[in-house]
Amino acid sequence: MNSIHTRICDMLEIEHPIVLAGMSPVAEWELAAAVSEAGGLGVLGAAAMTPDEISESIRKIREYTSKPFGVDILLPAATATLADLTSDSRQTGNEPQLPKEYRQFQQRVYEAFDLKDPGPAEPHGDERWTRLSMAERQQAQVDCILQENVPVFASGLGNPAPYVEAFHGNGAKVIGLVGNVKNARRIRDGGADIVVAQGTEAGGHTGRIGTMALVPQIVDAVSPLPVVAAGGIGDGRGLAAAIALGAEAVWCGTVFLATKEAHLDQELKERVIEAVDEDTIITRLYSGKTMRNIKNPLIDLWEQSNLHALPMGAQGVIAEPTQRAARAANRIDLIRNAGGQAAGLVTEQLGAGEVVRRMAAQAAEVLERMPVPAPSK
Questions:
Q1: CA dist., res. 203 & res. 123, Å (int)
Q2: 314 pLDDT higher than 80
Q3: What is the pLDDT of residue 128?
Q4: Would you tell me which CATH number, out of the four given (3.40.50.300, 3.40.50.2000, 3.20.20.70, 3.40.830.10), belongs to the domain 7-369?
Q5: What is d(CA 292, CA 290) in angstroms, rounded to the nearest whole number?
Q6: Region 129-147: what's the mean pLDDT?
Q7: Cα(66)–Cα(64) distance, integer angstroms
Q8: What pTM did the predictor assign?
Q9: Virtual CA dihedral for 45, 3, 8, 244, nearest 10 degrees?
Q10: For the segment 145-196, what is each residue's pLDDT rounded down to a tens digit?
Q11: Maximum C-alpha span of the chain
Q12: Is the pLDDT confidence value at 94 over 70?
């Protein structure tokens, strides 16, 4: 099979310049392993995992394939808790509560969709894990990934600079994802090996600049550091276009959402397959940061509320109970589905390996068909 070989293929020791976005919780070990085995770089989406879960997932990937893979977590510069937003709880020691208008929104959700208040969530992880702050959890995740000696570490949000030296000491490559030139320079200056330039077309957390405009600007800004293009890339034509823009690989998530190995409800996979170009929306509902999702009625209700999103960390206290309530009622149509604008290119359910092979072959064919420059006169 014809394929494209770039500098990133050599750096990451992969056959095809195709990297799986480390989508949490969709990119679990099955999906990451399948992409790596097919010659791309599978990336485990570990943002919501405990260290024990990360270690177990890495073990399963290594049992499935001997090829390189990566692990992705989120490293936000700052997060907030409800206690940070409610001065009375800090002064009195009372349990912090959501502001009244946000509790009222939750109640409207339950009434509008005939859901039951799910009550407090069951703890995720052991008692020690549940007592850690967000920063302490991030450090525990990083320590685990370092201990596992993974080949590639990726930060899907935030600057990995504090950990670059440690990962380089393990012989690992470090990837940072950005949505603008300013942050690309920060990632470069922090010592990362590869910068992912993600345009606003992408699913999940995303910025404001389109991929076509963003990629060449970041290529110029961080040269000679290699750049990976992301956002709206759903087939080999997108890979070929990314190469033309100066990128040396693509970072793809949406195209893998409906694959057999993706850890996603079948109903949500079918929603991705059915989606057309205008079926996504950017919302702050789920995390407080801008996140592109396949449209759903819950997002519509949030956008109509005109409420301001709380900071990352606190906003999840609004959305998380509604997600548990929806799942308990089997209202899968209300569950978060972080797909991007490339969803319109996903028309069938395939294995992840087949997606990689088709994309690589189509990109090579497109580049072979490109017009040959006329000789200069």
A1: 28
A2: yes
A3: 85
A4: 3.20.20.70
A5: 7
A6: 93
A7: 7
A8: 0.94
A9: -100
A10: 999 999 999 999 999 999 999 999 999 999 999 999 999 999 999 999 999 9
A11: 82
A12: no
Q: Which residue ranges make up each domain of the chain?
A: 7-369
Residue type, 29: W
* Amino acid, single-letter form, for residue 11: M
Query: Residue written as tokens 């930060």?
Result: 155
